[in-house]
């Protein structure tokens, strides 16, 4: 009795995936504004009604494509597993940077990365939703990881600055890609392990310096007679 229901569900999931893949390729190539539902339906070999059934409308489809792209860049479940693992804080950071660099160097033509690059360079109203739904929860986990290294509380603005310093170079590789003129083309000629090792040592050195500075300032603030204790 349950077999037909499972079959229908499986067919529906396959159709949804086919639409998502087709839309991702087209959005990555021509952009959101220039990609029509008709073109997506033709690429996915489905009727127009299927797009509305699975995603509501073109806007909903694009939002789903962005979410899938962000998940390809940094999977939430994998990030939770890394942050909660028994690795040392510095080893967690090394693994994270290695994964991001590998995605940037090994998958430069993946539509997921090209869609994100387009959205970052020419943002639409969907970017804010992507930030709230996908980026913000992951940022909280990343701050926890960096807090383990620096001993800076997650709510302190200093940790947000640390997060920017660590993630920005990786995002530059991901968004810029091999075709971006200038130093990036030279960087992409290097082995991915060389790039990742450099970014890790640069990041961990900066985090350790900020950690020492933060501890020194906290000690000064705690002394009797200091401005913070008057």
UniProtKB/TrEMBL annotation:
InterPro entries: Homeodomain-like_sf (IPR009057), HTH-type_TetR-like_transc_reg (IPR050109), HTH_TetR (IPR001647), Tet_transcr_reg_TetR-rel_C_sf (IPR036271), Tscrpt_reg_YbiH_C (IPR015292). Keywords: DNA-binding. GO terms for molecular function: DNA-binding transcription factor activity; transcription cis-regulatory region binding. Signal peptide: none annotated. Pfam families: CecR_C, TetR_N. Residues 13-73 form the HTH tetR-type domain. Residues 36-55 bind DNA. This is Transcriptional regulator TetR. It comes from Alicycliphilus denitrificans (strain DSM 14773 / CIP 107495 / K601).
């Amino acid at each position: 009795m349950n077999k037909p229901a499972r079959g229908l569900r499986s067919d529906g999931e396959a159709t949804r995936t086919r639409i998502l893949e087709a839309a991702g390729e087209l959005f990555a190539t021509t952009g959101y504004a220039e990609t029509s539902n008709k073109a997506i339906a033709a690429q996915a070999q489905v009727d127009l009604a299927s797009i509305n059934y699975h995603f509501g409308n073109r806007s909903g489809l694009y939002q789903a494509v962005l979410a899938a792209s962000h998940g390809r860049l940094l999977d939430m479940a994998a990030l939770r597993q890394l942050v909660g693992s028994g690795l040392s804080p510095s080893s967690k950071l090394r693994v994270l940077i290695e994964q991001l660099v590998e995605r940037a160097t090994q998958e430069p033509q993946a539509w997921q990365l090209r869609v994100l690059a387009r959205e970052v360079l020419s943002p639409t109203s969907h970017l804010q939703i992507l930030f709230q739904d996908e980026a913000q929860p992951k940022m909280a986990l990343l701050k926890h990881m960096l807090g383990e290294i620096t001993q800076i509380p997650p709510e302190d603005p200093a940790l947000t600055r640390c997060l920017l310093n660590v993630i920005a170079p990786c995002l530059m590789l991901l968004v810029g890609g091999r075709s971006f003129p200038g130093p990036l083309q030279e960087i992409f000629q290097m082995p991915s392990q060389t790039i990742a090792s450099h970014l890790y040592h640069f990041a961990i050195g900066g985090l350790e310096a900020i950690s020492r500075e933060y501890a020194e300032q906290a000690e000064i603030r705690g002394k009797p007679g200091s401005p913070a204790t008057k």
